[in-house]
Design brief:
It is a single chain. The protein has helices at about 15-20, 35-45, 90-105, 115-120, 130-135, 165-170, 170-190, 215-230, 240-245, 245-250, 260-270, 305-320; strands spanning about 1-5, 30-35, 50-55, 65-70, 110, 145-150, 150-155, 195-200, 235-240, 255, 275-280, 285-290. With about 325 residues, the protein is α/β, with parallel strands linked by helices. The protein has 2 domains: about 1-140 and about 285-334, Isopropylmalate Dehydrogenase, CATH 3.40.718.10; about 145-280, Isopropylmalate Dehydrogenase (3-Layer(aba) Sandwich), CATH 3.40.718.10. The chain has a 12-stranded mixed sheet, with helices on both faces. A hairpin with a 5-residue loop joins β11 (about 275-280) and β12.
Length: about 325
């Protein structure tokens, strides 16, 4: 099994937490996609003992203490904590290498370290996040962001939008498509035969019968009714302020939140540093860390690679559950 791991924003913690994976990935062959010299220098600065070697697909994985790298050239020198739009193209190139490798079958899954959306936009490329980029590059009909951790799975009906744009983005057809993808991947990739999904309302108190907004009545409830006709066990809409208590969601397989900051603060409070971001609806397996670039601590050696380890392990489990990564002939060691 081969998992491509993109190292993210060069000035952030991505290069060092990727280097820290040496000796911590089990049951899979980890291949880093990023700048070799930067990772080696950052590892040395952070006291991480690792040897980085070029990736050679025809040979077996590296020896203990070594990690394989697909080297991506940088356009400008990197200072930890200081982003530079000139290196945005290299960040996107690393994503493209991993995506193309997964689509071709060279890799069984990809894991992403955090990137900086703003600096990519500053380079002149319109970019709203990994999720949307993966959807476009893989020509997927729709994707769903799901975060897992702390005993919770939280999916999002909308992702990286200004709060003012959320109500218009929530449509009956869009919610139904999201529920189909969420249900389908819970069955196919997580092995849950009959998943139970709880759905949050958009407004306070789930609209209070229309007195605090009509989105629940006009949009969310009709989508849930159609989903249930299709055999999807989707319940709600529930007021978001009580939905996440154990008595409500403890027996559920996933919660669908209407927008980014409705669902993710709860999950991150329960599992920050160990949570995993999983993109559903793609033809490939992709997981990611649950945190950002952490520019303030980049290069200090204090970054925790726990979420990245969890993301790699989640990718490995999803590969196994889907039956991928098992058919390659063994290669002789070099």
């Amino acid at each position: 099994m081969r998992i491509a791991i993109t190292t993210g924003e060069p000035a952030g913690v991505g290069p060092e937490i990727c280097a820290a994976l040496a000796g911590r990935v089990h049951g899979a062959r980890a291949v880093l996609v990023g700048n070799h010299d930067l990772m080696q220098a950052r590892a040395a600065a952070c006291g991480i003992r690792v040897s980085l070697v070029p990736y050679r697909p025809e040979r077996a994985g590296p020896a203990e203490g070594k990690l394989e790298v697909i080297d991506i050239p940088l356009a400008a020198p990197v200072t930890a904590g200081r982003v530079d739009p000139r290196n945005a193209a290299a960040v996107l190139q690393s994503l493209d290498v991993a995506i193309d490798g997964c689509l071709s079958g060279a890799f069984d899954a990809m894991v992403t370290a955090p990137l900086h959306k703003g600096v990519i936009c500053d380079s002149g490329v319109e970019f709203s996040g990994h999720t949307e980029y993966l959807e476009q590059r893989t020509r997927s009909a729709g994707v769903v962001m799901l975060l897992e951790g702390g005993g919770l799975r939280v999916a999002l009906a909308t992702t990286h939008l200004p709060l003012s744009a959320v109500p218009a983005a929530i449509t009956r057809d869009g919610l139904l498509r999201t529920l189909r993808i969420l249900h389908g991947d819970l069955v196919a990739r997580f092995g849950i035969a009959a998943p139970r999904i709880l759905v949050a309302g958009l407004n306070p108190h789930a609209g209070e019968g229309g007195h605090l907004g009509r989105e629940e009545i006009d949009t969310i409830i009709p989508a849930l009714e159609q989903a249930r006709i299709e055999g999807i066990a989707a319940e709600g809409p529930f007021p978001a302020d009580t939905l996440f208590v154990e008595e409500m969601c403890g027996a559920a397989d996933a919660v669908l939140a209407m927008y980014h900051d409705q669902g993710l603060p709860v999950l991150k409070r329960a599992s920050f540093g160990q949570g995993v971001n999983i993109t559903l609806g793609l033809p490939i397996i992709r997981t990611s860390v649950d945190h950002g670039t952490a520019l303030a601590i980049a290069g200090t050696g204090t970054a925790d690679c726990g979420s990245l380890i969890s993301a790699v392990e989640s990718a490995r489990r999803l590969v196994v559950a889907s039956g991928r990564g098992l058919a390659r002939p063994s290669q002789s060691a070099a």
